[in-house]
Amino acid sequence: MIWTDVSGFGSNSTYEHDFFLNNYDGKTYLSRAQGLNGIPTVIYWGSNLPRAYLDTRFGDPAEEVAYVIGCADGDAIQANTWYWSQIRTDKGDANTDKAKLFGQLGHRSPSWCYTTWCVIADQTEPIVGSWSNPWAISVPVDLWWTR
Amino acid sequence: MKKKKVFTLGLVLSFVFLGEVAPRLLIGSNIKTFQGEQRAFAASAWKEARYFFSGSAEPLFWTAIQIQDVKEKVDTDGQQCYEANVRAYTLFGLPWSSVLVTSCNGGSMIRQKWGLAPTLIGRFSDE
To answer: What residues does each domain of chain A span?
Structure first.
């Protein structure tokens, strides 16, 4: 990921790169395993985003499965700097799947807390696809996007 | 003395239980009050709002989610689109938060300044 304009981030702001797999058919390309706290059970996750965290699925309905890495310190994101995030999981029970990608701005509450539990959503927009066509990504895929 | 303590504890637990359960039973989604495409959008907006209000500790605070209204709009390239005001309620049905869900211009969800959430958990645009 690369931002050319970071003026939208404030001192308390957060960003989540919300990737969802379609589970309306009860099957997903990646494992849906998670802990009781909703944190996905993964082989590996990592990111060079400032104060990165693996997002919980706590409270999410089961039909759309989130694989999300967030940045709890949006203010520290630098313009024109490459950022990466990676989640590696076990195989799921589908050979192909549909996915959607949203971007979410939020804030920390309380502001001194940098975990997934303290990140509150304020605004969400599709990055790939649109509201009327959200499942625009066929999985597996290599995809470049600009927003 | 012991009886009084048990009674008080029971009263408090019943009070909290009612506050938690009553909104879940009494505040419906409202989806069925809309017709045709408006109903389809209301269902979609309600589901997306559930994701919006989840994925943090926030689900501990809300007890019910309801579509307040659905409006037909026209987006910048002349296409018909919809906008829904979706509200979340907390204990005893008190207002918690609201999100404006729109399919216009690609779509977005934006939290509104409504309910107790802006006071209790803040709001990005207040900075």
So the answer is: 13-139
- Any CB–CB contact under 8 A between B59 and chain A? yes
Q: What is the pLDDT of residue B13?
A: 85
Whether residues B121 and A120 touch (CB distance < 8 A) is answered with yes
User: A interface toward B at CB cutoff 8 Å?
Assistant: 10-13, 16, 38, 55-61, 63-64, 66, 68, 105-107, 109, 111, 116-126, 130-132, 134
Judged by a CB distance cut-off of 8 A, whether residue B53 touches chain A is yes
The distance of A82 to chain B (nearest Cα, Å) reads 25
Segment B12-31 mean pLDDT: 89
pTM for the complete prediction? 0.91
- Tell me which residue of A75, A51, A60 sits closest to A19, measured CA to CA: A60
Write down the ipTM of this complex: 0.92
- Judge whether residue B125 has pLDDT over 80: no
B48 contacts B102 by C-beta, under 8 angstroms: no
> Are residues A132 and B51, on separate chains, in Cβ contact within 8 Å?
no
